[in-house]
Design goal:
Elements (H helix, E strand, L loop, with lengths): L7 E5 L3 H11 L4 E5 L11 H13 L3 E3 L3 E5 L3 E6 L2 E6 L2 E4 L8 H6 L17 H15 L1
Parallel strand pairs: 1-2, 1-7, 2-3
Antiparallel strand pairs: 4-5, 5-6
């Protein structure tokens, strides 16, 4: 399938967004490497889902490098330092998929213009689906 991406893709960030993106790209014939600065990939997922996602990614040939310090993005890929060694992760395309932030624009647009407005889901913080549902239920009970 044609996509405006190279055949080798490095994804900076191994949380939910990075893992889902890796799976999406693998299904479209890309060779994917996930680079994570923390000690583990998919750390923001529940344990059962995390095991399944990691197993699927491994079986699909996704390379996962943890505790990587990102140094530079070059024409050849991403230069990282791991265990004190500097190395280049070869990639035609580099995607930064870390640092998910709450999107409060809609909340702010409504605030003061309607009688009541509540934050829920990713407007309140990184909640993912389960957290968003819990936020909605909690707000519903208050009303």
């Amino acid at each position: 399938m044609w996509m405006p991406l190279g055949k080798r893709v490095a994804i900076i960030g191994g949380d939910l967004a990075g893992c889902e993106l890796a799976w999406f790209l693998v299904e479209r014939g890309r060779k994917v490497t996930i680079l994570e600065s923390g000690p583990g990939v998919a750390a923001d997922m529940g344990i059962t889902r995390r095991w399944r996602v990691l197993a699927d990614l491994r079986q699909s040939g996704v390379e996962m490098i943890t505790e990587a310090k990102y140094e530079e993005i070059t024409d050849e890929g991403v230069i990282i330092t791991k265990n004190g060694e500097r190395q280049t992760i070869k990639a035609d395309t580099v995607i930064v998929a870390e640092g998910m932030q709450p999107d409060t624009r809609f909340f702010q647009a409504l605030e003061g213009k309607v009688p009541q407005v509540y934050r829920a889901g990713d407007c309140a913080g990184l909640r993912l689906i389960r957290g968003a549902v819990l936020d909605g239920a909690s707000i519903g009970v208050k009303l």
